[in-house]
Amino acid sequence: MHAPTRPAALTGVALALAVILTACGSTAEVGDPAPSSPAAEAPADAKKTEPAAEPEPEPAAEVGTRASPAAIGQVVTMSQAGVPQWEVSLSAPNLDATAAVAAANQFNEAAPEGMVYAQVTVNVKRLADEAATPWIDLTVEFVSAAGTTHAEYDHSVSVDGTLTDLGEMYAPATGSGLVTIAIPVADAAAGTWTVSSMFGDPTFFKAV
User: Fold this and answer.
1) Which fold has domain 76-206?
2) Is 88:75 a contact under the CB 8 Å cutoff?
3) Residue 31 burial by Cβ neighbours in a 10 Å radius (0-12, 13-18, 19+)
4) Contact indicator for 182, 150 with CB cutoff of 8 Å
5) Per-residue confidence in pLDDT tens, the chain, 208 aa
6) Cβ contacts of residue 156 below 8 Å, gap of 6+?
């Protein structure tokens, strides 16, 4: 074989130098970290923060409590030891029945000063199988806006069609009777009626 001519040898050396120079001019190598972005270099306080979580709403008060009394006409179930005994609702309250009470019987006791007679009709339905008497099982009272409690037996009056006129009832018997209570005249409409079973907590109803 003939030795390569001088121009061919020079050409080979020039190509080798070009490859070496190209390699030295590159800065991106495998394994190098990626160039940082402007967003990554932003100060911590410039980063977007998550909005604060809104507080959970307060649960609504249970209907039938003093804070959330049942409406007139609304039916509630009275239970004893977890067993339903009565369905109860109130209707036709009269927060100033003083004249009607006086007309019912001339011997009725007058309401004390600062008080008037109020009347409400109590509607009941017997749910349990065994017989029971509404006025024995149930107590109806009035709680004034000031928080004082007033009962039917506080003052003696005689009127027709009272709750005490109802006798023993078996399911599903129904009946209605009037309850008369002397209540404070001040802010009477802001008070509440209550109906309690013999061993249960009172259920509150709006005054009107």
Assistant:
1) Immunoglobulin-like (2.60.40)
2) yes
3) exposed
4) yes
5) 444 444 444 344 444 444 344 444 433 333 444 444 444 454 555 455 666 666 666 656 688 999 999 999 999 999 988 899 999 999 989 999 999 999 999 999 999 999 999 999 999 999 999 999 999 999 999 999 999 999 999 998 999 999 999 999 999 999 999 999 999 999 999 999 999 998 788 999 999 9
6) 108, 109
